[in-house]
Amino acid sequence: MDELMKTQAEKAPIIPLKTRHLAQLPAHVLRPNYDRSALTPGIVHIGLGNFHRGHQAWYLHRLMQAGHAMDWAIIGAGVRQYDAVMRDKLLAQDCLTTLIELDPSGSAAEVVGSMIDYLPIEQGNAALIAQMARPEIRIVGMTVTEGGYFIDPATKGFDAAHADIIHDATYPETPRTAFGAIVAALRLRRQAGTGPFTCLCCDNLLGNGDILRQTIVSLARMTDPALADWIDAECSFPNSVVDCIVPATGATELALAHSFGIDDHAPVTCENFRQWVIEDAFCAGRPDWDLAGATFTDDVHRYEAMKIRLLNGGHQLLAVPGEVLSVATIAGCMEHPLIGPFFAKVARQEIAPHVQPVPDMTPEAYVALIHARFCNPKIIDTTRRVAFDGSSRHPGFIVPSIRDGLRAGTPIEGLLLVEAIWARMCAGTREDGSQITPNDPFWSDLTMQAMKAKDDPQIWINMRQIYGDLGQNDQVSATFARLLRSVWDDGTAKALADYLAG
């Protein structure tokens, strides 16, 4: 927001975010130009965090702004008790979200109105199952984090032994998980002759649609093989790539919404960049998201590899040393004299050589693009958020590039260095002595292994759920051991400086 807007906002009243108040918002705030009361649902989305509301919901909203997709409105859902807090906030403001784009050249606010309801959070998920069983629901989307798909860490197959999965297989009509609820709804649709729906994964997983298919079909097969076969044959699970940097919301973001004259209890901030690449495989129709900038393609996997290896992998290159060295944000890491150059060198020399180009974008150009995005000082994206759930992110974002480097005989030292610094991070303290609060679903196990690895680095690299058989590779084992000892003995900054000088 420029200084004139800021001055005007300071003088203007703060308007509670409600449908009936949209006309009262300041003129510079974009808002729905469509009749929200005329919208009908076509999508249930499970996982209404900031990313969904700043990404998929925005694409649909922009379609609606152009007069399209009025029968594709979103009904929100969640399956964990903590989702109830977000539900209360969004229902209190008619499921509207203020989306604030933060760009170095200026900021802008837009009220997104494509979501029209949020289902109750309840044991057994009856309301969610009933809604997904309704014939007008043609897509069920999911944003539940990379670690939420019940993947066996050793085999990468379906984890049928997880307690929640065992529950859902034992009590299929009152499931705990989103996947159990989807299976239950599809059972009702099959019985009623309603037909299938598309299951659309929006998490950062390579082959995310294939993984979602594996989870849902495998769970169904535990109780009803015929239903599993029907789901596998009739439902579609398109792979997709999603990209937009969307920080967590806190006091700063609430105040920023106020600066635009809006009292929003769940605003979302994001960068001025979005990408959504989707396989055009929808068994029950879809919105024309391409009219709002999405890309439909039969070659999603190249886009996936570029984004996951370079952007998501690059995020780990920044956030992990940033956390150990007490650098609070990703933009701060990019400004750091060692961390920013470390990201640039590893991305260009150790990751990009193994990434294929996509239409209109080479890996080298993509590194330059994400370099500029990561430097955006207005995006207060914390190292803690980005470093979260490393036990899922490192196997998906970093380890594949290590394997590519080994096969090609190209450098892997920087990639192994970030793994060594992650092992140092998981010991639970920063180098200034401050505590790192638990930041992974398996934090206690990681901390125990990290402390043992301080004396015997092989213990860390032998974690098969993270590294598979990499610990048995002599080059990996020796290099990792040397780097971890360097990090502990001489400090992370010295280890980064040595790498950059090499």
Automatic annotation (TrEMBL):
Any one GO molecular function term: mannitol 2-dehydrogenase activity
EC number per UniProt: 1.1.1.67
Keywords recorded for this protein, A-Z: Oxidoreductase
Membrane-traversing stretches: none
UniProt KW Kinase keyword: no
Domain Mannitol dehydrogenase N-terminal positions: 42-290
Domain Mannitol dehydrogenase C-terminal, residue spans: 299-488
Protein name, per record: Mannitol 2-dehydrogenase
Upper lineage: Bacteria, Pseudomonadati, Pseudomonadota, Alphaproteobacteria, Rhodobacterales
